[in-house]
Write a structure and sequence with these properties.
The longest helix is centred in the first third of the chain and has 18 residues. The chain is α/β, with parallel strands linked by helices. It is 47% helix and 11% strand. The strands form 2 sheets. It has a 4-stranded parallel beta sheet with strand order 4-3-5-6. The chain has a two-stranded antiparallel sheet with strand order 1-2.
């Protein structure tokens, strides 16, 4: 009986380490999984085992896939000459969910940060520069966070790519957003990125 509890506590402890789950949420999720053992826990464990052995980082862009190249990089229809640079794989997946970008991506794996001693070599910036020579890139779209580190990274990348058109996503008021609920930086960015009506 003690071993069963130890295994359950280990599961709860591991789940509590996941982003967005604390100890209480992990306990509730683990209990739900155990109650739905046949329909949920076993298939989840099998899927996790499969991902643990097959998932790998795309050698070209840094996305997660099951081969040396992810499905996006392997798709010849995606070779539009546009590369969208994102901080993390989650950002790439968000862009894909929106379904509006048809080019290829480049995942940096973070942003430059002097405080955390993260320089260009710790990120995939040199690989991005190499891609400019290997691929017929006409535009690099910077989809980086509107933070100090994100903007520092964007300026650094723009300086590293002379002769390439470098653009960034517009920043400002989200659809359905009310000015009263926005922070000063968002309002300022929205005003600077204004366009003709």
């Amino acid at each position: 009986m003690a071993d069963d509890l130890d295994a359950l506590e280990t599961l709860i402890d591991l789940m509590a380490r996941l982003p967005g789950l604390g100890p209480r949420s992990a306990r509730r999720a683990a209990l739900h999984l155990v109650k739905k053992r046949g329909k949920l826990l076993k298939p989840l464990a099998e899927a996790m085992g499969e991902v643990a052995t097959t998932a790998r980082e795309c050698l070209t862009c840094g996305n997660i896939g099951t081969g040396d190249q992810c499905a996006i990089c392997a798709n010849p229809k995606r070779a539009t000459g546009e590369i969208c640079v994102v901080e993390d794989v989650a950002d790439l997946w968000a862009m894909e969910r929106a379904g509006v970008f048809r080019g290829r991506y480049h995942v940096l794996g973070g942003t430059l940060s002097a405080l955390d001693a993260i320089g260009p070599e710790e990120l995939r910036i040199p690989k991005l520069v190499d891609r400019m020579q290997d691929e017929a890139v006409t535009e690099v779209i910077l989809a980086l966070p509107a933070t100090v580190d994100g903007q520092t990274t964007a300026h650094y990348i723009a300086d590293m790519l002379p002769g390439i058109t470098v653009t960034s996503l517009a920043q400002g008021v989200p659809i359905g957003g009310e000015l009263d609920y926005l922070d000063d930086g968002t309002i300022s960015a929205a005003l600077r990125a204004r366009k003709a009506f």
